[in-house]
TrEMBL record:
Superkingdom of source: Bacteria
Segments forming domain TraC-like: 21-197
InterPro entries registered for this protein in UniProt: TraC-like_dom
Pfam family, one: TraC-like
Organism: Candidatus Taylorbacteria bacterium RIFCSPLOWO2_12_FULL_43_20
Name assigned to this protein: TraC-like domain-containing protein
Upper taxonomic lineage: Bacteria, Candidatus Tayloriibacteriota
Length: 214
């Protein structure tokens, strides 16, 4: 009789590690994540709309690699704002101001309880997969280098830096292209990437919205 052993969550996630602002997958490929702003496209004039479409088309045609656009839609967590208002309420001096602040806090709570206020965040995932693991390099890694040796560690570091350099070049192309479209962009750091994936794999938890250090 065979007993099915429970598998850890990590077994189903293709991520090996996250470091130096890079997601390293189990197959050795890398991902960088860029967070972008949005545009009020409908409020633009016809000329501006055409210019944005043309610029975005030019950006897409300039790419010689694939990229993924990811949108996260999540209910807005109002708790940090309520906590801020409560602090303001405590330091109010006049009775009228305290009353108005309390009424405003109650109004915000009722409004957010009755209405689903959603916040949307946009990301662009930039990939890089190296094909330099083949041929003599594979044989050298397998037969000549002792795992954990200083030479092996140095080669792994050199290989990582080389691939990350190629990935950063792609990130630069994407950043420039999106900036020309009128978007504000910022590459996520290690902590921001960890927080993003934590929220993705724990959708039931309502937490503070993603904050990016610029």
């Amino acid at each position: 009789m065979q007993v099915n052993k429970a598998r850890a969550t990590q077994d189903f996630i293709p991520i090996k590690e996250i470091r130096d602002n890079v997601v390293i997958l189990k197959d050795g490929s890398m991902r960088a994540i860029i967070m972008t702003s949005s545009l009020n496209f409908a409020l633009k004039s016809a000329e501006n709309q055409e210019a944005i479409i043309y610029q975005f088309q030019t950006f897409l045609n300039s790419l010689d690699f694939s990229a993924q656009i990811y949108m996260e839609s999540r209910r807005l967590d109002i708790r940090p704002y309520i906590a801020l208002l409560e602090e303001r309420y405590k330091v109010q001096q006049g009775d009228l101001l305290k009353l108005q602040t309390r009424e405003y806090i109650d109004f915000v709570k009722r409004f957010t309880d009755e209405t689903n206020i959603m916040t949307k965040t946009f990301f662009v995932v930039v990939p890089y997969a190296s094909s330099s693991f083949q041929g003599k390099d594979v044989l050298k890694n397998k037969f000549l280098l002792k795992k954990g040796s200083a030479e092996d560690v140095k080669q792994q570091m050199d290989n990582f830096e080389e691939k990350r350099s190629q990935l950063e070049q792609r990130v630069s192309v994407v950043v420039q292209g999106l900036t020309r479209c009128g978007l504000r962009v910022v590459q996520l750091g290690t902590e921001e990437i960890v927080e993003l994936f934590y929220k993705i794999f724990n959708p039931g938890e309502t937490e503070k919205p993603l904050q990016v250090n610029q």
